[in-house]
Amino acid sequence: MNRIWKHPVFWGVVATSAIFLFGLWIGMQEFCTAADDCKSKYSAFLVARPNEIGDTLAGFAGALAFVWIIVTVWLQS
């Protein structure tokens, strides 16, 4: 068990899970418009314009790419 804690892929999976859970937590947050129309950010994401959806997904993909680049370098060292 001690050996798995030192493996880079384990930490990559942990970091990926943390990013995924952070995205879920952000999606569950509510925001209100000026007319007191409150809804979750996830429901706003579903009706967003395509470029806004792409920007959001690109942000998460960039974070995951950064994590796995670090894991790759760690594996090669």
Describe the 3D structure.
By secondary structure, this protein is mostly helical. It has one domain (4-76). 70% of the residues lie in helices and 8% in strands. It has helices at residues 8-28, 41-46, 50-76; strands at 30-32, 38-40. It has a two-stranded antiparallel ribbon with strand order 1-2. β1 (30-32) and β2 form a beta hairpin. The mean pLDDT is 91.
Short description:
By secondary structure, the chain is mainly alpha-helical. The chain has helices spanning 8-28, 41-46, 50-76; strands at residues 30-32, 38-40. A hairpin with a 5-residue loop joins β1 (30-32) and β2.
Question: What are the SSEs and their pairings?
Answer:
Layout: H1 8-28, E1 30-32, E2 38-40, H2 41-46, H3 50-76
Antiparallel strand pairs: 1-2
Helix pairs in contact: 1-3
Question: What is the C-alpha radius of gyration, as a whole number of Å?
Answer: 17 Å
How many domains? The number is 1
The largest beta-sheet arranges its strands as: 1-2
Which percent bin holds the helix content? over 70%
Averaged pLDDT: 91
Parts with pLDDT < 50 across at least 5 consecutive residues: none
Class computed from helices, strands and strand pairing: mainly alpha
Major sheet description: 2 strands, antiparallel
Strands, count = 2
Distinct helical segment count:
3
Outline = elongated
What string gives the helices and strands in order? HEEHH
Share of residues in strands:
5-15%
Distance between the termini: 22 Å
Descriptors:
elongated; single chain; mainly alpha; two-stranded antiparallel ribbon
